[in-house]
Specification:
With 303 residues, the chain is mainly β. The protein has helices spanning 11-14, 138-141, and strands at 2-3, 6-8, 24-28, 33-39, 44-49, 54-59, 65-69, 75-80, 86-90, 95-99, 105-109, 111-112, 115-116, 123-125, 131-135, 157-161, 167-171, 177-182, 188-193, 205-211, 217-225, 231-236, 242-246, 249-253, 259-264, 269-275, 281-286, 289-294.
Length: 303
């Protein structure tokens, strides 16, 4: 049954939401809103408007929206490290960067085995300090979300950047790896594959991989699959549920892959992030707009 902004499929989902907490539109005016990240020390959220080559900032205290960075090298996925620094994937620069506390930018990764990366898309940090990111070709396919160019890699892959600066390719059998996140215990890695944008009949899925204590990856089974639309960015809550973009909704999956319910949006959803002081506010980037909704669950702590 559907109630307001929610589609409750399993009774468990009813306990994760408050039906009186409707989806709020916080801002509109983007071309393709992506890459939300909440900075708790500053009480604001940043997100990317990729085709307009800018990063926007929403102030939680005042509700004001302003430009955080422009031009922004067609930045996409973002996260915050344990020192409160902002990390971004850049389509335009074909690199992963960190914004330091003084505003300067440090390049963390831009090449693998001598060739430039394609266009890093989304990233996640592990508690050992390593940075894991996806590298599809969306930023080099055209000038819309980056700079049209040829790939210098053998395909679109997933990488791990160690604290020693060594870059390793950890997954090499995906079409277009996209959203990425760890389970709360970091024993599972979830990666969305949006290869259907380039290959007919390619699976529209999120895959799950086993991760050892040494960071080695194995497996790669299907966690969730769509018939239409695509999974893109997603985040995980404290109990291991996956909250993911999926067409014009946010889907919530149990750790065993059961679809529990959906948060309905009027636009195609690109990415989500938990934020607020209790990490119980879900921020949603959907095509032209930034939305949020208060939920009865807390996002997994990543900062």
């Amino acid at each position: 049954m559907a109630i307001s902004d929610y589609d409750i499929i399993e009774p468990e989902f009813r306990e994760l939401i408050r039906i009186s907490a409707n989806v709020e539109r916080l801002y509109t005016g983007c071309r393709w809103a992506e890459g939300p990240a909440y900075l708790p020390a500053h009480r604001y959220l940043v997100w990317s408007d990729i085709p307009n080559d800018r990063i926007l900032r929403w102030d939680e205290m005042s509700g004001a929206v302003g430009v955080f960075r422009a031009p922004a090298s067609y930045a996409n996925g973002a996260t915050v490290d344990r020192q409160g620094r902002l990390l971004h994937c850049e389509h335009g620069g074909r690199r992963v960067i960190r914004t330091e506390h003084d505003g300067s930018v440090t390049v963390l990764a831009d090449r693998y085995e001598g060739g430039r990366l394609n266009s890093p898309n989304d990233l996640v940090l592990r508690s050992d300090g390593s940075i894991w990111f996806t590298d599809p070709t969306y930023g080099i396919d055209s000038d819309y979300e980056g700079h049209k160019s040829s790939s210098e890699q053998s395909g679109s892959h997933v990488y791990r950047l160690g604290v020693d600066g060594a870059l390793a390719r950890v997954i090499d059998d995906m079409g277009q790896p996209n959203g990425i996140a760890f389970s709360p215990d970091e024993r599972r890695l979830y990666v969305a594959d949006t290869g259907a944008t380039h290959r007919q009949n390619h699976p529209r899925e999120i895959r799950t991989f086993d991760v050892g204590a040494d960071g080695q990856v194995s497996g790669g089974s299907t966690f969730a699959e769509l018939k239409d639309g695509l999974f893109d960015g997603f985040r995980v809550d404290e109990d291991g549920r996956v909250w993911t973009s999926a067409g014009s909704a946010v889907h919530c999956y149990a750790p065993d892959g059961r679809l529990l319910g959906r948060i309905l949006l009027p636009e195609t959803v690109a990415n989500v992030a938990f934020g607020g002081l209790k990490r119980n506010r879900l921020f949603i980037c959907a095509t032209t707009s930034l939305y949020s909704v208060m939920v009865a669950e807390n996002g997994a702590k990543t900062f």
